[in-house]
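Repro case for the chain-ordering regression, as requested:
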Amino acid sequence: MKTVNLTIDGRPVSVPQGTSILEAARQAGIAIPTLCHENDLSIAGACRMCIVEVEGNKKNLPAACAQPAMEGMVVHTNSPKVREARKVILELMVANHPLDCLTCEANGKCKLQQYCYEYGVKESSFTGEKRRFTVDDGNPFIERDLEKCILCGKCVRVCHEVQGVGAIDYTGRGFDTKVTTFMDKGLAESPCVSCGQCIYMCPVGALTAKPSKGKGRDYEVEKVVTTCGYCGVGCQLALNVKDDRIVGVTNLPDSHNQGYLCVKGRFGYDFVDSPDRLISPLIKENGEFREASWEEALDLVAQKLGEVKAQYGPDAIAGLSSARVTNEENYLFQKFFRAVVGTNNVDHCARL
Amino acid sequence: MAGLATAFGSGAMTNSIEEIEKANVILAVGTNTTEAHPVIATRVHKAKTRNGAKLIVIDPRKTEMAARADIWLRPYPGTNVAVFNGLLHVIIAEGLTDDEFIARRTENFAAVKEAVAPYTPEEVERISGVPAADLVAAARLYGQAERGSILYTMGVTQHTTGTEGVLAVANLALATGNLGKEGTGVNPLRGQNNVQGACDMGALPNFFTGYQKVTDSAVREKFARAWGVPELPGKEGLKIGEIIEGAGAGKVRALYIMGENPMLSDPDITHVEACLKNLDFLVVQDIFLTETAQLADVVLPAVSFAEKEGTFTNTERRISRVRRAVRPRGRAKPDWEIISALAARMGYEMNYEGPEDIMAEIAALTPSYAGITYPRLEKGGLQWPCPDKEHPGTKYLHKGKFARGLGLFNPVVYKPSAELPDEEYPFYLTTGRILYHYHTGTMSRRVEGLNAIAPCGLLEINPSDACQLDIKDGDVVRVVSRRGSIMPQVEITDRVAPGVVFLNFHYKEVAANTLTNAVYDPISGIPEYKVSAVRVERR
Ligand code: SF4
Ligand code: SF4
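-- result from build under test --
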């Protein structure tokens, strides 16, 4: 493949032909701000945050995500001209934004907030009518507050291009443009499968995980990277923990599942604190369970297994291990049956 | 699993999830991927829309996958083997085989060629209802693919002829050379989170870890030495179905169940209950008082995945870390601690500091896990085989050479399912999963939002059948099989063909396995969940 050589912020960079300026800059360790760009989605060129200055191009500031790197190009990603233009873009967005960061779920991880901070955008010099939309909260897991939407379109693209569902799309033009469901009936009435991919993509607080609301800011929670406990895809995710409670899930873009999850992995953690959890050993007496200590329960199990083994031999004992517990636990279970009980009567429901 | 091990020497998914995006043709058989393996379905979707891959789906139900397919073959339930043989028949007849691959890397092709000779498209249409022209089109598409990837799940295996189904699928890949390279393969998508790991770890009656045979005395000696016991049993143990039957017959007297719920997951649960009640002693270790735990003499409280350390192995053989996020609830303990404590009481010390220690022992005894250590898993996990501490893990199997040496063609013949519809029970019942719940629902049914979206188990029935029986959407009907009856609500939908009804098995209130037939594939021991005969009665 042909490579092209260019200069970005004074650094020489060589990339394969067809690489965008954005990608070339990243390879050179230069971060260009973006709102609508995502590696695994098509290029939208919608937000224009990634504009750069290319020497010799007097006409305009091209969007780095859509502009291919060319031989001999000299690019400035952070020139005064670029910074000024980005500031205007942010001011336009902010003009039409509720700015209720105090209660916003995205506070602390919002990219709009972050860039406004970096570019010193306090409030907008453009004043005008703000959009008014009602919040769509019919879906048990996903809340859509379109007044906060910056129309980056990442949710629309991920829903179409990755999830293959297409529950949401743009309607209207100009000021009235919005992301909506079919006939604007809300997510609950749409083909949405509650995967939460759109929440994962949303750079602001327009799409939020309902069960996590008010339970902890992004910077307050501890993120514990682990493996989903549901299906065999084994997606990687981070459990967000605050005060010893799971309050949400963070998608992990660098995982084998590329950060994508399904409704179970994304939202299905409540069972951990279900009131139905078994919290004590139980022993059945006269057909009723009573709570017991570990000592008593384990003594009883050991005694009973010992009796059956003595009377009928080890093959009268069997064990069903589990496709839900860890490798280490499955290993110990079969070791227990083979080395301690002395039988190969151990299986699990792989077959079912 | 047994089928693939016979054909290739390893029962696991041959290729990786990410490679699905690199296939030109994806042949998805009996897998409702969008619901059962949702994130894998995103790969299929991307392969299609970004790389122009073609999708062939073989499924009696019009699943989301079927709706997205370029070619959808809809066989009668239980006739897969005829369809697979028919595909190979056409591939051979049209000269689409990879003769170089067959000659160099496989054996026994002649026998299979002969076996599939009778499966002309017309004959397959007669058996399966799949139009001959569609079969030919599908065979051409897969046969001509540069990189063809086969995905399958329980729709292939949960039949009395499941092993034959797997072998027939393997024949297709062998004949077209779609093995041992990127973006190809025969890929069984494993259902539960750690079903691959449970198999790898030897939670099987015939294997120690890493599929080392219990009947092999050298292997037994190795484990006996490591475990510090004089000897280990050399006779294969009972399979799950035999354990349940053994309990009913008084052969198995005591049963220790860890994290399983056969009272919902096993076929013919009325019978399962009778068997479990016949035990002298039942101990169940779980996070909830499941239907099975309620029958126990002693219940031991375990912790969920969020309260412990360890590893899971996913469907693509990837070993990933599980990390403790919150403290154990109440007095519940991790399963490994409970097992160790019990072993100590029975006179055997298991002195592990924790799961990392246990993994070190697994690695020392298991060639395919030999290179696994916790620090090495920090960067996104490793795929077995990983034979040493420097090995990067294995993306796809059978490169250059099959695990068993040569790939083995296995001739198979189509046999009808054990129970077919008749006058008294005129419907095919087939069972499966839905997106919003998981397995026996012990976890997902306790998530409020999931219940809000999918509150009850629905019987899917075709509009024409519903009309004939005079039932409306949402009606409660009685579904009766030779084993029992349940009363689900109906959903009228053309996802099922006329004459077929579908139930998922997540709901205890309408437990599908009250109806299913406890007949098993004689080799794999997998029950025939995908075909039983029922009657639907209006109330
Ligand atoms: S949750 Fe998933 S399906 Fe629903 S709108 Fe978002 S991306 Fe689309
Ligand atoms: S997030 Fe969904 S697809 Fe991924 S492992 Fe969990 S259940 Fe499976």
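Ordering looks correct now. The CA atoms of residues 14 and 215 of chain B lie 26 Å apart.
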